[in-house]
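Hey, can you fold this one?
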Amino acid sequence: MSTLSLYELLKGTSDPVAAGVIEHVVTVDHLVANLPMVSLGVRDSLVYRREKALPAVSKPASGASVTATAALTFTRATSYVRRMVVDQDIDILDAGAAGGMTAARAEAIGKASKSIARTFGDDVITGNSNWTVTVNEVGSAGNTGATIVVGPGHDPRLGPGLIKYTHSGTTVQYKAPGDVQFGSAVSYSSGVKVYSDNEDKWVTVSLTGGTLAANGTTVFTISGGDQEVDGLQRLVVSSQTISSSGTNGDAIALATLDQLADLVTDTGGPKVYIMNRRTRRSVAALLRAAGGATLAEFKSEITPTGQATSMLTYNGIPIIVSDYIPLTESKGSLSTGASVYCATLGENAGLAAIYSDASMDAEDAGELISRGPGGVTVLNLGTVQNVDAKRVRVKAYWGLLNKSEKGIARASEITN
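Sure. Predicted structure:
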C-alpha cells in the first residue's frame, strides 16, 4: 500500500490536471499535505488490529515448568473513508467571457480542490460521525427511552447495539454492532461511558428512567449521521489526554510539550506537534525567552510546489499548524481555549490518511478528466439539463487511520 504524503505523491504525477488539483490541496492545509496517504484499493474501509497487551514473560528455574500466560491481546478496529464531492456548473456564456471553457473549468477545479482540502483538514481535527440513534426497545419496566451518543469506529451495517442494565449493583454493559459479547460492567450514572467487548467501541448512555427497578436490555440502531470521519478530538483516549490544572485553563508551557511527547510512545513514524497559529506564536515566544531562539529553531523546507516554508520545531519535533483547531474550549472563565496534539505519522502509527480508488465502470470512462494521486478524481458530467451550463465534479474518498492509541496525545484547555 502507498504511504507517501501528498507532497511526495505530487512528484510522481505527470498529469497536469492532477498536479494542479494536488497543488491546490497542499497549499491549503499543512497537516493534510504532510499526512501519509494509505490506499485501500477499491474498498471503503480498513479493518485492522490494535495491540492492547503483551504476554507475561516466564522466568522458570532449571527444570521448573514454564507458566502459560495469556496470548498477545488485540482489539479489532475499523476506519472508513467518506465521500467528499464538489459539483460546479459553469455557465457557457460566462465561460466565454472568462477566456473559454477550458480556462473556466480549470478555475472551477482549483476552487473545488481547495474546498475539499479545507473540509478534510477540518474533519481531521473536529470530525464527528454523529450517528442518528433510534431506540427500538427500551428494556426494563420504568424506562421510557434512552439518550445514547455513539463513539467512533461503528458500522450501522453490522446490526443493532445492546445496552444491558442489571438492577443488582445498578450496572450497565454494552455490546456494539458486530461484537459477540458484552463489555465490562460499569456503575450506572447519567452520561456514563460504556465500552463494548471490543474496547475501541463505546457509547455514552443516559436512561430516561434513571436507576431502574428491574433488569433489562435497551436495543438501538444507528443510521444517517453527518458522513464525517472521526477526527482527533474523538480519537484521543482519556489516558492520552492532559487536562489543564488551572481553574481557567493553562497557558502553553514547554513542559506541556515534553509531557505530550512522552505520552506518544509509538515508534511507527515521525513525531510531530499539531497546534493552531495562536499557540504556535506562544511557543515561539517561549523559545525566545529561553535564550535559544536563533535560526536553528526553524526547519526550512522547499515543498514540491516550489514554495519555501519555515516550520518551527521544539526538541527536534516539527510543529505543524492547523487552522482548524477550534478556539472554543471552556473551563471556568475560559471560553476560547484550544488543544495541542502530538502524533506519530505513518501507516502503522498514530495518524495517517486513507483513500479509496473506487473506480467507475468502463462505459463511464468518457467522463474522466483526471484521476490523480491520493484518489482525487475529476469528472466532466456534461451539459446540465434545462440550464445552459457544463458541470464538472471533483471528488475524493478520504478517511483517517489511527492504528496506535499510543501514537496520539492531546493537551486541552490551552489559553494562548
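Confidence is low (pLDDT under 50) at residues 302-307. Let me know if you want another pass with a different chain boundary.
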